Amino acid sequence: MALQQVAAYRPTKPELAVFVSGVTSMGLEILAVRVIAPQFGNHIYTVGGILTVLLAALSLGYWQGGKRAATASTREMSWLMLGTAVYVAVVIFASDLLLTYTSTLALPPRYASLPAVIVLFGPPTYLLGFISPYAAELSQKRGTGEASGHVYALGTIGSIVGSGATTFILIPSMGIDAIGLLFGLMLVATALVLVAPSLPRRPTVASVLVALVLIVAAAGGPAIFDVDHRGEIVHETQTPHQQLEVVDDDNVRTMYLDGARHSALNKDDPDEHVFTYTKYFHLPMLLTDEIDDVDRVLFVGGGGYTGPQDFAEQYDATVDVVEIDPYVTDAAEEYFTLEDHDKRDDLNVYATDGRQFLQNTDEEYDVIVLDAYKKDQVPFHLTTVEFMELASDRLADDGILHANVIAAPSGPAAEFYHAQYETINEVFPEAYSFRTSDANAIQNIQVVATTDESAPAFDEGVLESRNNERTEAMGVDLSGAIDNKLDEPESDDAPVLRDDRGEVDSLLDPMFGQRYVIEESDGGSVEAEAEPDEPAASLAG
């Protein structure tokens, strides 16, 4: 009987409006993370700011809608739907411009994304907040409690559909602008249904015009804002994890993840290390007793696969790569020099989380390279003492951990580096640090640690001697890295990071908005992120 009732159920117009508003509001909330992240980062402050702003806007809409619910009508709900669709068109068309402008506002770094969230997603969420109290007023249910419960249930079901569909279906398969267009057209269609079957002239004409505005915004926005200071965008997509772009600037091809540089390739000389820090990945070969003893290497983080391919080709070792985002691996194969890994015996790729992989594998590694950090997006579960203990357990008795940490060598922006060094030093007998730039700016600091308690002290003299002996075998000269060896940091006050205490985001605070320098192998350097007055990357998928 219950199944027959469900099959026979036909929603009323107010019920349909509530369901669609739930789908759209939660879909926009999920979408907001992908729109905001390339400019402001995908850290907890961005996500928390989005939730705060959208819940506040929704609450304000509920309150105002409740005050006006006595005069509610399906036609007024139709206009609210159209108004929301118009603002979605604004988000599609002008999000790049609005993101760039709001990023110049003088705010503390952790609050920097709030103006963009408020401007882009506050108004449409506020308008959608009117729908629920209007629907409750127009409900055919008897009693305030029954009407409210019915509306809340329908709205929540819509939110579940919007959240699930956007997360698991739309973002992996469509671009941001296409998803926005879909939501906008869904709102327009609902607006027409609300005034059907009479279809009064003004709402009908307005619906057609709004639909045209949405289509023009989706088609015209990317074309107008497609001038990119970084070069020519040859590939761009939204993956389940991040925004991925491949950009050509003359002979240099760069992979951007959420707007940050991650790998670079000299198309004229693919074997060149465009970024100096990728040479430093060979530092473990100076700490090991014999290069030939290194049989198995693990990279946590693949990017453009510069390091993993270098190791696979240079050493007689099997290289395992844990890259959580399979789209990154696909881009490395198509746009960089990664050969089809399915046909190789010396390089294995696993699309999973690095910590989960280490928990589930029985493999013993001679070297583990941790290259999964971003400047302002650090997976905290890969930084803690519990993770370092797990990595140590998966290393051989004379195994070596290499961590690519992004921070400043000293000063306030060094807080994360100091904490990470202390955490590594808590587990490993010895740890050494190497800066990659002479500047005191935020940069790639390489921390190398050994599990061998009997290993010699690796001062500059020992490292230079081994470098002279092993340069040919390694294929790189690490004399520059040795010159950049840092003294042990004064980090006694730095916390040891633990799973039950999420301090990483606060430690990253001093780095927000600061200059991040990546040294190039030709002696130059590049800014790893755009200055505030530069245009943001196109958000079209």
TrEMBL record:
Lineage in the entry?
Answer: Archaea, Methanobacteriati, Methanobacteriota, Stenosarchaea group, Halobacteria
Summarize the protein's role.
Answer: Catalyzes the irreversible transfer of a propylamine group from the amino donor S-adenosylmethioninamine (decarboxy-AdoMet) to putrescine (1,4-diaminobutane) to yield spermidine.
Identify the gene encoding this protein: speE
- Indicate whether Membrane appears among the record's keywords: yes
Pull one GO CC term from this UniProt entry: plasma membrane
The protein's organism comes out as Natrialba hulunbeirensis JCM 10989
- Annotated family: Belongs to the spermidine/spermine synthase family.
Q: Where is the PABS domain?
A: 212-463
Q: What's an example GO BP annotation here?
A: spermidine biosynthetic process
Residues annotated as binding S-methyl-5'-thioadenosine are 242, 323, 353-354
Assembly notes:
Homodimer or homotetramer.
What's the protein called, per UniProt?
Answer: Polyamine aminopropyltransferase
* Classification via SUPFAM superfamilies: S-adenosyl-L-methionine-dependent methyltransferases
